[in-house]
From TrEMBL:
Pfam families cross-referenced by the UniProt entry: AAA_22 (PF13401)
Domain AAA+ ATPase: from-to ranges: 139-296
Species in which this protein is naturally found: Desulfovibrio psychrotolerans
Official protein name in the record: AAA+ ATPase domain-containing protein
Entry's Gene Ontology molecular function annotations: ATP hydrolysis activity
Amino acid sequence: MQRLKKLLEAMEQPQRAVADAIGISPAALSAIVTRGEWPRRDPDATKARLQDYLIATGVRKATVIAALKEETKPENPGKNDSPEDTTMLMRKQVLTPQAKRQFGLVRSPFSDELSGPEDVWLSADYRYVREAMLSTARHGGLLAVIGESGSGKSTLRKDLAHRIGAEGLPIIMIEPYVLAMEDNDQKGKTLKAIHLAESILYTVAPHAKCLSSPEARFRQVHNVLRDSARAGYRHCMIIEEAHSLSHPTLKHLKRFMELEDGFTKLLSVILIGQTELQTKLGEADSTVREVVQRCEVVHIDPLGNDLPGYVAHKFQRAGVDVDKVLAPDALDALAARLTGPRSTSGQSVSLVYPLAVNNSLVAAINMAAHIGEAKVTADVINAI
């Protein structure tokens, strides 16, 4: 509501003073000014009190009425009409200097700069996925780790690499480059079996010259893996962004896993991808049935009841007491904000994943500092 915003700015009064005068929180007033969202409880009474207050301070009645009648229009009309769009994710947020000073934050608790395993927060669900990944790397198999964007999949991959190195496990991680990978050549470049073979050779036998013909190269891959296994090593191929794999490549992965030396399997595979990977590995798709029948699938679930522990860990790593920044009702409000209905099924879906939580809390901390709140409250969360 641009007119109302300009009126308040012209008065040169803090929003907190205006909010106190009409009996609402500063966060609620901020929601009115920035998005035209009135409190759900008796919005007409709130509007009347604000009108009376502005007129009493000397603003012309006609000007006040015009400002309060202004409607807030969505940025993209027609694109936010479905129930699924009621739960929106935020873009990257950065703490303002004002917020850092007010809450004593030398560095952001939510920057996600991982300097070591102590920075990785593990719930019971994350520990299960973590152990499933290590078990596959050590003993073989095909594992698909599926989670929403920002759920912590890449963090678990980094943790696996660290554990293998720290514990001195004889496991060679093979990670094909997926920088331009798409599931068709119109949108990008498909990752093909020949590329997987090259990745194996470059990792396991970096000084070997790749043979030119496909038959010779795949035979070379088999020999290299066999010789390495006889030297005591296990081999695990990890493919990030696996939801962008093509169906033929998914089928070929099964054939790579069938490379063996007697009873010894020479290669295990871990696929890490977003929820589209679940669709590609669907039981109804006959083109990948031989993969589906051999693939163990684990899902990274939303934080749920682990949200307070995750947030406390983040603040503890930054050296700040979480209770000095967040009010007791803040996290319940955040969980509710990041939960909404799916338009296709009508069921509630939770987006309480680390990245969404990080961005939402940074935005809330910035708003609390901007409007002069001592802590991030439920009202502040609802106003971002």
